Amino acid sequence: MRIVMTRRLAVGVLAVAPFAALAAAPASAAEIKVGIDNFTFNPKELKVKTGTTVVWTNNDDIPHTVASPRNSIKSKPLDTGDSFSFTFTTPGAYDYFCSLHPHMTGRIVVEAATGENDAK
Amino acid sequence: MTAHDDDQGPSRRKVLECMTWAGTGVLWTIAGGVPTAAGLIDGAMAQEVKGFSFLQISDSHMGFDKPANPNAKGTLEEAIARVKAAPGNPAFMIHTGDISHLSKPSEFDDAEKIISQARLDVHYVPGEHDILDDEQGKLYRDRYGRGTKGPGYYSFDANGVHFIGLVNVVDLKAGGLGNLGHDQLEWLEEDLKSRSASQPIVVFAHIPLWTVYPEWGWGTQDSAQALAYLKRFGSVTVLNGHIHQVMQKVEGNVTFHTARSTAFPQPAPGTAKSPGPMKVADDKLRTLLGTASIAFRQNEQRLAIVDTPLKS
Protein backbone atom coordinates (compact mmCIF):
# COMPACT_ATOMS: atom_id res chain seq x y z
CA MET A 1 0.00 0.00 0.00
CA ARG A 2 1.42 3.34 -0.93
CA ILE A 3 -0.25 6.64 -0.34
CA VAL A 4 1.29 9.78 -1.66
CA MET A 5 -0.01 12.95 -0.15
CA THR A 6 1.03 16.23 -1.63
CA ARG A 7 0.44 19.62 -0.17
CA ARG A 8 1.84 22.71 -1.65
CA LEU A 9 2.61 25.68 0.50
CA ALA A 10 2.73 27.57 -2.75
CA VAL A 11 -1.00 28.26 -3.04
CA GLY A 12 -0.92 31.49 -1.06
CA VAL A 13 2.49 32.48 -2.27
CA LEU A 14 1.58 31.99 -5.92
CA ALA A 15 -1.25 34.47 -5.68
CA VAL A 16 1.01 37.14 -4.26
CA ALA A 17 4.21 36.60 -6.18
CA PRO A 18 3.55 34.52 -9.26
CA PHE A 19 6.82 35.28 -10.98
CA ALA A 20 9.00 34.40 -8.04
CA ALA A 21 7.10 31.18 -7.44
CA LEU A 22 7.30 30.19 -11.08
CA ALA A 23 11.01 30.82 -11.15
CA ALA A 24 11.50 28.82 -7.99
CA ALA A 25 9.44 25.84 -9.01
CA PRO A 26 10.03 24.92 -12.63
CA ALA A 27 8.33 21.86 -14.03
CA SER A 28 11.50 19.87 -13.65
CA ALA A 29 11.88 20.78 -9.95
CA ALA A 30 14.13 18.52 -7.98
CA GLU A 31 12.77 15.83 -5.73
CA ILE A 32 14.75 14.79 -2.69
CA LYS A 33 14.00 11.82 -0.51
CA VAL A 34 14.09 11.66 3.27
CA GLY A 35 13.85 8.22 4.82
CA ILE A 36 12.23 7.53 8.17
CA ASP A 37 14.27 4.69 9.61
CA ASN A 38 14.60 3.48 13.17
CA PHE A 39 12.69 6.46 14.55
CA THR A 40 14.96 9.00 12.85
CA PHE A 41 14.64 11.27 9.85
CA ASN A 42 17.42 10.43 7.46
CA PRO A 43 19.04 12.80 6.77
CA LYS A 44 18.08 14.73 9.86
CA GLU A 45 19.11 18.02 8.24
CA LEU A 46 18.78 18.78 4.59
CA LYS A 47 19.58 21.82 2.45
CA VAL A 48 17.48 22.29 -0.65
CA LYS A 49 16.83 24.99 -3.24
CA THR A 50 13.44 26.65 -3.41
CA GLY A 51 11.06 24.67 -5.53
CA THR A 52 12.38 21.37 -4.29
CA THR A 53 9.88 18.71 -3.38
CA VAL A 54 10.90 16.67 -0.36
CA VAL A 55 9.46 13.18 -0.16
CA TRP A 56 9.46 11.44 3.22
CA THR A 57 8.95 7.67 3.25
CA ASN A 58 8.33 5.67 6.40
CA ASN A 59 10.41 2.50 6.46
CA ASP A 60 9.55 1.61 10.07
CA ASP A 61 6.97 -0.90 11.28
CA ILE A 62 5.35 1.88 13.31
CA PRO A 63 3.46 4.86 11.93
CA HIS A 64 5.06 8.30 11.97
CA THR A 65 4.10 11.79 10.89
CA VAL A 66 5.88 14.81 9.49
CA ALA A 67 4.68 17.92 11.30
CA SER A 68 5.76 21.53 11.38
CA PRO A 69 2.89 23.38 13.03
CA ARG A 70 4.48 26.81 12.59
CA ASN A 71 4.56 26.22 8.84
CA SER A 72 1.18 24.50 8.64
CA ILE A 73 2.80 21.30 7.47
CA LYS A 74 1.22 18.12 8.71
CA SER A 75 1.16 14.74 7.07
CA LYS A 76 -1.41 12.10 7.78
CA PRO A 77 -0.07 9.17 9.80
CA LEU A 78 2.33 7.32 7.51
CA ASP A 79 2.12 3.58 7.85
CA THR A 80 4.95 1.37 6.66
CA GLY A 81 5.86 2.29 3.08
CA ASP A 82 3.66 5.40 2.98
CA SER A 83 5.09 8.68 1.70
CA PHE A 84 4.37 12.36 2.18
CA SER A 85 5.68 15.08 -0.08
CA PHE A 86 5.91 18.81 0.31
CA THR A 87 7.20 21.41 -2.11
CA PHE A 88 9.18 24.20 -0.49
CA THR A 89 8.65 27.49 -2.31
CA THR A 90 9.80 29.94 0.33
CA PRO A 91 13.39 30.16 1.60
CA GLY A 92 13.90 29.60 5.31
CA ALA A 93 14.56 26.98 7.95
CA TYR A 94 11.75 24.48 8.50
CA ASP A 95 11.97 22.54 11.74
CA TYR A 96 9.70 19.56 11.87
CA PHE A 97 9.04 16.51 14.05
CA CYS A 98 6.96 13.36 14.34
CA SER A 99 3.83 14.28 16.28
CA LEU A 100 3.59 10.70 17.58
CA HIS A 101 7.21 10.43 18.68
CA PRO A 102 8.24 14.01 19.34
CA HIS A 103 11.83 13.11 20.10
CA MET A 104 12.14 12.57 16.33
CA THR A 105 13.09 15.94 14.88
CA GLY A 106 14.42 17.15 11.56
CA ARG A 107 15.12 20.34 9.65
CA ILE A 108 14.89 21.42 6.03
CA VAL A 109 16.84 24.53 5.10
CA VAL A 110 15.44 26.07 1.95
CA GLU A 111 17.83 28.34 0.09
CA ALA A 112 16.90 30.80 -2.60
CA ALA A 113 17.52 29.42 -6.06
CA THR A 114 20.56 31.34 -7.27
CA GLY A 115 19.78 34.87 -8.38
CA GLU A 116 16.38 34.26 -9.87
CA ASN A 117 14.08 34.77 -6.94
CA ASP A 118 16.16 37.26 -5.00
CA ALA A 119 14.59 40.11 -6.89
CA LYS A 120 10.98 39.66 -5.74
CA MET B 1 19.33 6.29 33.86
CA THR B 2 16.58 7.12 36.29
CA ALA B 3 15.53 3.53 36.79
CA HIS B 4 18.67 2.96 38.85
CA ASP B 5 18.54 6.07 40.96
CA ASP B 6 16.65 4.65 43.86
CA ASP B 7 18.75 2.40 46.04
CA GLN B 8 15.67 1.09 47.74
CA GLY B 9 14.00 0.19 44.49
CA PRO B 10 14.78 -2.78 42.33
CA SER B 11 18.45 -3.37 41.74
CA ARG B 12 19.90 -2.73 38.31
CA ARG B 13 20.06 -6.44 37.73
CA LYS B 14 16.44 -6.88 38.75
CA VAL B 15 15.33 -4.07 36.49
CA LEU B 16 17.18 -5.58 33.56
CA GLU B 17 15.63 -8.95 34.29
CA CYS B 18 12.20 -7.38 34.34
CA MET B 19 12.79 -5.70 31.06
CA THR B 20 13.37 -9.00 29.34
CA TRP B 21 9.87 -10.15 30.17
CA ALA B 22 6.71 -9.52 28.29
CA GLY B 23 3.25 -10.92 28.75
CA THR B 24 -0.40 -10.25 28.58
CA GLY B 25 -2.01 -8.97 31.72
CA VAL B 26 -1.54 -8.20 35.37
CA LEU B 27 -4.00 -8.90 38.14
CA TRP B 28 -3.95 -6.18 40.78
CA THR B 29 -5.18 -6.54 44.30
CA ILE B 30 -5.43 -3.94 46.96
CA ALA B 31 -4.89 -5.23 50.46
CA GLY B 32 -4.28 -2.91 53.36
CA GLY B 33 -4.05 0.05 51.02
CA VAL B 34 -1.03 -1.30 49.21
CA PRO B 35 -1.60 -2.74 45.76
CA THR B 36 -0.34 -6.24 45.19
CA ALA B 37 0.06 -7.72 41.75
CA ALA B 38 -0.31 -11.40 41.10
CA GLY B 39 0.16 -13.39 37.92
CA LEU B 40 -2.81 -14.37 35.86
CA ILE B 41 -1.54 -17.88 35.39
CA ASP B 42 0.14 -18.66 38.65
CA GLY B 43 -2.93 -20.18 40.26
CA ALA B 44 -1.42 -20.83 43.66
CA MET B 45 -0.44 -17.24 44.04
CA ALA B 46 -3.72 -15.86 42.79
CA GLN B 47 -5.58 -18.06 45.26
CA GLU B 48 -3.95 -16.09 48.04
CA VAL B 49 -5.18 -12.84 46.65
CA LYS B 50 -7.95 -11.46 48.77
CA GLY B 51 -10.03 -8.35 48.63
CA PHE B 52 -10.53 -5.98 45.80
CA SER B 53 -8.73 -6.69 42.56
CA PHE B 54 -8.63 -5.40 39.02
CA LEU B 55 -6.81 -6.16 35.79
CA GLN B 56 -4.57 -4.18 33.50
CA ILE B 57 -4.01 -4.84 29.82
CA SER B 58 -2.22 -2.55 27.42
CA ASP B 59 -1.05 -1.91 23.88
CA SER B 60 -3.33 -4.28 21.96
CA HIS B 61 -2.46 -2.51 18.67
CA MET B 62 -5.40 -3.98 16.76
CA GLY B 63 -4.46 -3.82 13.09
CA PHE B 64 -0.76 -4.44 13.62
CA ASP B 65 0.36 -7.16 11.20
CA LYS B 66 4.10 -6.64 10.84
CA PRO B 67 6.75 -9.36 11.26
CA ALA B 68 7.10 -8.81 15.03
CA ASN B 69 3.63 -10.36 15.35
CA PRO B 70 1.49 -10.84 12.23
CA ASN B 71 -1.45 -11.85 14.41
CA ALA B 72 -1.90 -9.25 17.14
CA LYS B 73 -5.59 -10.08 17.13
CA GLY B 74 -4.82 -13.67 18.02
CA THR B 75 -2.60 -12.75 20.94
CA LEU B 76 -5.22 -10.33 22.29
CA GLU B 77 -7.72 -13.18 22.11
CA GLU B 78 -5.29 -15.37 24.04
CA ALA B 79 -4.83 -12.67 26.65
CA ILE B 80 -8.56 -12.26 27.11
CA ALA B 81 -9.01 -16.02 27.32
CA ARG B 82 -6.51 -15.96 30.17
CA VAL B 83 -8.33 -13.11 31.84
CA LYS B 84 -11.51 -15.16 31.72
CA ALA B 85 -9.80 -18.23 33.09
CA ALA B 86 -7.94 -16.42 35.84
CA PRO B 87 -8.94 -17.19 39.41
CA GLY B 88 -10.18 -14.42 41.63
CA ASN B 89 -12.95 -11.99 40.98
CA PRO B 90 -11.54 -8.83 39.43
CA ALA B 91 -13.87 -5.84 39.69
CA PHE B 92 -12.93 -4.39 36.30
CA MET B 93 -10.12 -3.94 33.85
CA ILE B 94 -8.09 -0.93 32.84
CA HIS B 95 -6.62 -0.57 29.37
CA THR B 96 -3.63 1.74 29.24
CA GLY B 97 -3.88 2.70 25.59
CA ASP B 98 -2.88 1.87 22.04
CA ILE B 99 -6.05 -0.13 21.68
CA SER B 100 -5.69 0.29 17.92
CA HIS B 101 -2.69 0.64 15.66
CA LEU B 102 -4.01 3.32 13.28
CA SER B 103 -7.23 4.57 14.95
CA LYS B 104 -9.38 2.87 12.31
CA PRO B 105 -13.01 2.15 13.20
CA SER B 106 -12.50 -1.50 12.21
CA GLU B 107 -9.57 -1.75 14.64
CA PHE B 108 -11.60 -0.32 17.50
CA ASP B 109 -14.40 -2.72 16.52
CA ASP B 110 -12.07 -5.71 16.68
CA ALA B 111 -10.71 -4.64 20.05
CA GLU B 112 -14.20 -4.16 21.45
CA LYS B 113 -15.36 -7.52 20.16
CA ILE B 114 -12.48 -9.37 21.79
CA ILE B 115 -12.09 -7.41 25.02
CA SER B 116 -15.81 -7.47 25.77
CA GLN B 117 -15.56 -11.25 26.00
CA ALA B 118 -13.90 -10.77 29.38
CA ARG B 119 -17.29 -9.51 30.59
CA LEU B 120 -15.69 -6.83 32.71
CA ASP B 121 -16.11 -3.10 32.77
CA VAL B 122 -13.09 -1.58 31.06
CA HIS B 123 -11.70 1.85 31.87
CA TYR B 124 -9.62 3.18 29.01
CA VAL B 125 -7.07 5.89 28.40
CA PRO B 126 -5.83 6.58 24.87
CA GLY B 127 -2.38 5.93 23.47
CA GLU B 128 -0.88 7.95 20.65
CA HIS B 129 -2.07 5.29 18.19
CA ASP B 130 -5.70 5.90 19.23
CA ILE B 131 -5.88 9.56 18.20
CA LEU B 132 -4.64 9.37 14.61
CA ASP B 133 -7.95 10.28 13.01
CA ASP B 134 -8.32 13.69 11.37
CA GLU B 135 -10.00 15.11 14.45
CA GLN B 136 -7.27 14.01 16.87
CA GLY B 137 -9.11 11.40 18.85
CA LYS B 138 -12.77 12.07 18.10
CA LEU B 139 -13.27 8.40 17.22
CA TYR B 140 -11.69 7.41 20.52
CA ARG B 141 -13.72 9.92 22.53
CA ASP B 142 -16.97 8.92 20.85
CA ARG B 143 -16.38 5.32 21.88
CA TYR B 144 -14.59 5.53 25.19
CA GLY B 145 -14.69 9.12 26.32
CA ARG B 146 -18.21 9.48 27.69
CA GLY B 147 -18.10 11.48 30.91
CA THR B 148 -14.43 12.37 30.49
CA LYS B 149 -12.81 15.78 30.26
CA GLY B 150 -10.73 17.28 27.47
CA PRO B 151 -9.00 14.55 25.44
CA GLY B 152 -10.36 11.87 27.80
CA TYR B 153 -9.13 12.18 31.41
CA TYR B 154 -11.35 11.29 34.36
CA SER B 155 -11.43 9.81 37.83
CA PHE B 156 -13.64 7.42 39.77
CA ASP B 157 -13.75 5.62 43.09
CA ALA B 158 -13.94 1.90 43.66
CA ASN B 159 -13.72 0.10 47.00
CA GLY B 160 -12.28 3.15 48.67
CA VAL B 161 -9.54 3.51 46.08
CA HIS B 162 -9.40 6.62 43.92
CA PHE B 163 -8.59 5.89 40.28
CA ILE B 164 -7.38 8.60 37.91
CA GLY B 165 -7.07 8.05 34.15
CA LEU B 166 -4.77 10.61 32.54
CA VAL B 167 -4.04 11.41 28.89
CA ASN B 168 -0.43 12.21 28.03
CA VAL B 169 -0.41 11.61 24.27
CA VAL B 170 -2.04 14.81 23.00
CA ASP B 171 -0.41 18.01 21.79
CA LEU B 172 3.12 16.66 21.97
CA LYS B 173 5.85 19.23 21.44
CA ALA B 174 8.83 18.90 19.09
CA GLY B 175 11.79 17.42 20.92
CA GLY B 176 9.65 16.65 23.95
CA LEU B 177 8.16 13.64 25.75
CA GLY B 178 4.62 12.73 26.75
CA ASN B 179 2.52 15.72 27.74
CA LEU B 180 -0.29 16.26 30.26
CA GLY B 181 -0.75 19.95 29.69
CA HIS B 182 -1.87 22.83 31.85
CA ASP B 183 -5.62 22.18 31.83
CA GLN B 184 -5.31 18.55 32.83
CA LEU B 185 -2.82 19.35 35.61
CA GLU B 186 -5.18 21.97 36.97
CA TRP B 187 -8.02 19.48 36.90
CA LEU B 188 -5.85 16.92 38.69
CA GLU B 189 -4.94 19.35 41.45
CA GLU B 190 -8.63 20.08 41.97
CA ASP B 191 -9.56 16.40 41.83
CA LEU B 192 -7.11 15.55 44.60
CA LYS B 193 -7.51 18.64 46.76
CA SER B 194 -10.21 17.53 49.15
CA ARG B 195 -9.12 13.91 49.46
CA SER B 196 -7.71 12.32 52.57
CA ALA B 197 -4.01 11.48 52.32
CA SER B 198 -4.82 7.97 53.52
CA GLN B 199 -6.93 7.15 50.48
CA PRO B 200 -5.04 4.83 48.12
CA ILE B 201 -4.55 6.38 44.69
CA VAL B 202 -4.11 4.55 41.40
CA VAL B 203 -3.09 6.69 38.43
CA PHE B 204 -3.04 5.22 34.94
CA ALA B 205 -1.90 6.71 31.64
CA HIS B 206 -0.35 5.44 28.43
CA ILE B 207 3.19 6.83 28.39
CA PRO B 208 5.19 6.26 31.58
CA LEU B 209 4.85 9.09 34.09
CA TRP B 210 8.45 8.54 35.13
CA THR B 211 11.44 9.03 32.92
CA VAL B 212 12.32 5.56 31.71
CA TYR B 213 14.45 6.51 28.69
CA PRO B 214 14.13 10.01 27.25
CA GLU B 215 16.26 9.13 24.21
CA TRP B 216 13.30 7.04 23.06
CA GLY B 217 10.66 9.44 24.35
CA TRP B 218 9.79 7.15 27.26
CA GLY B 219 8.68 9.68 29.81
CA THR B 220 6.28 12.59 30.36
CA GLN B 221 7.72 16.06 30.38
CA ASP B 222 5.35 17.61 32.92
CA SER B 223 4.77 14.55 35.11
CA ALA B 224 6.73 16.12 37.99
CA GLN B 225 3.87 18.55 38.54
CA ALA B 226 1.35 15.70 38.68
CA LEU B 227 3.55 13.79 41.12
CA ALA B 228 3.84 16.88 43.31
CA TYR B 229 0.06 16.85 43.76
CA LEU B 230 0.26 13.15 44.70
CA LYS B 231 3.12 13.51 47.13
CA ARG B 232 1.07 13.80 50.32
CA PHE B 233 -0.75 10.52 49.72
CA GLY B 234 0.39 7.41 51.55
CA SER B 235 -0.14 4.94 48.73
CA VAL B 236 0.17 5.92 45.08
CA THR B 237 0.42 3.42 42.25
CA VAL B 238 1.14 4.61 38.72
CA LEU B 239 0.31 2.15 35.93
CA ASN B 240 1.46 2.75 32.37
CA GLY B 241 1.96 0.99 29.05
CA HIS B 242 3.64 2.22 25.87
CA ILE B 243 7.02 0.53 26.31
CA HIS B 244 5.77 -3.05 25.85
CA GLN B 245 7.75 -4.50 28.72
CA VAL B 246 7.58 -4.73 32.46
CA MET B 247 9.51 -2.13 34.39
CA GLN B 248 9.01 -0.79 37.84
CA LYS B 249 10.39 1.69 40.25
CA VAL B 250 9.54 2.66 43.79
CA GLU B 251 10.08 6.22 44.88
CA GLY B 252 8.89 7.11 48.35
CA ASN B 253 5.20 6.23 48.52
CA VAL B 254 4.87 5.98 44.76
CA THR B 255 5.14 2.71 42.88
CA PHE B 256 5.57 2.98 39.12
CA HIS B 257 4.83 0.01 36.90
CA THR B 258 4.61 -0.52 33.16
CA ALA B 259 2.59 -3.38 31.71
CA ARG B 260 3.41 -5.59 28.79
CA SER B 261 1.74 -5.38 25.41
CA THR B 262 -0.59 -8.05 24.08
CA ALA B 263 0.71 -7.36 20.57
CA PHE B 264 4.49 -7.31 20.25
CA PRO B 265 7.60 -6.85 22.38
CA GLN B 266 9.86 -3.82 22.25
CA PRO B 267 13.56 -3.78 23.08
CA ALA B 268 14.95 -2.86 26.47
CA PRO B 269 16.10 0.77 26.57
CA GLY B 270 19.21 1.37 24.52
CA THR B 271 19.59 -2.23 23.36
CA ALA B 272 18.47 -1.58 19.79
CA LYS B 273 18.61 1.19 17.21
CA SER B 274 15.04 2.20 17.97
CA PRO B 275 12.11 1.36 20.23
CA GLY B 276 10.20 -0.18 17.31
CA PRO B 277 8.58 -3.63 17.32
CA MET B 278 11.12 -6.32 18.17
CA LYS B 279 11.11 -9.33 15.89
CA VAL B 280 12.05 -12.51 17.68
CA ALA B 281 12.02 -16.11 16.52
CA ASP B 282 8.47 -17.42 16.13
CA ASP B 283 8.89 -19.92 18.93
CA LYS B 284 10.18 -17.17 21.19
CA LEU B 285 7.32 -14.70 20.72
CA ARG B 286 5.04 -16.45 23.16
CA THR B 287 7.78 -16.79 25.70
CA LEU B 288 7.91 -12.99 25.62
CA LEU B 289 4.13 -12.70 25.60
CA GLY B 290 3.88 -15.01 28.57
CA THR B 291 2.58 -13.69 31.85
CA ALA B 292 4.44 -12.34 34.82
CA SER B 293 3.45 -12.04 38.44
CA ILE B 294 4.42 -8.88 40.22
CA ALA B 295 3.93 -8.90 43.98
CA PHE B 296 4.10 -5.78 46.08
CA ARG B 297 4.55 -6.73 49.69
CA GLN B 298 3.25 -4.44 52.34
CA ASN B 299 5.94 -2.29 53.89
CA GLU B 300 8.51 -3.55 51.43
CA GLN B 301 9.72 -1.51 48.54
CA ARG B 302 11.39 -4.32 46.68
CA LEU B 303 9.10 -6.02 44.25
CA ALA B 304 8.81 -9.79 44.00
CA ILE B 305 8.45 -10.78 40.39
CA VAL B 306 7.67 -14.23 39.03
CA ASP B 307 7.65 -14.77 35.30
CA THR B 308 5.24 -17.31 33.88
CA PRO B 309 5.68 -17.50 30.11
CA LEU B 310 2.95 -18.83 27.85
CA LYS B 311 5.51 -21.21 26.50
CA SER B 312 8.71 -22.15 28.23
Write the CATH homologous superfamily of chain A. Answer: Cupredoxins -  blue copper proteins
Q: Name the shape of chain A in a single word.
A: globular
Amount of helix of chain A: 10-25%
> Could you name the CATH homologous superfamily of chain B?
Metallo-dependent phosphatases
Largest sheet of chain A: 5 strands, mixed
- Which CATH class of chain B is shown? Alpha Beta
Question: Which CATH architecture of chain B?
Answer: 4-Layer Sandwich
CATH architecture of chain A: Sandwich
Task: Please give a quick description of this structure.
Chain A is mainly beta and 120 residues long. Chain A is built from 2 helices and 10 strands; from the N terminus they run βααβββββββββ. Chain A has one domain: Immunoglobulin-like (Sandwich), CATH 2.60.40.
Description:
The complex is a heterodimer of chains A (120) and B (312). Chain A has 120 residues and is mostly beta strands. Chain A has one domain (4-11, 31-111): Immunoglobulin-like. Chain A has 2 helices and 10 strands. In chain A, the strands form 3 sheets. Chain A has a 5-stranded mixed sheet, with no helix packed on it. Chain A has a 3-stranded mixed sheet with strand order 4-10-9, with no helix packed on it. In chain A, β6 (67-68) and β7 form a beta hairpin. In chain A, α1 crosses α2. Chain B has 312 residues and is α/β, with parallel strands linked by helices. Chain B has a single domain, classed as Metallo-dependent phosphatases (Purple Acid Phosphatase, chain A, domain 2), CATH 3.60.21.10. Chain B is 23% helix and 21% strand. Chain B has 8 helices and 13 strands. Chain B has helices at residues 12-19, 43-48, 72-85, 105-115, 138-144, 182-193, 223-230, 282-288; strands at residues 26-31, 34-38, 52-57, 93-95, 122-124, 154-158, 161-165, 201-204, 236-240, 247-251, 254-258, 291-296, 303-308. Chain B has a 6-stranded mixed sheet with strand order 6-7-8-9-11-10. A 5-stranded mixed sheet of chain B has the order 2-1-3-4-5, with no helix packed on it. The radius of gyration of chain B is 18 Å and the shape is globular. Classes of the chains: A mainly beta (120), B alpha/beta (312).
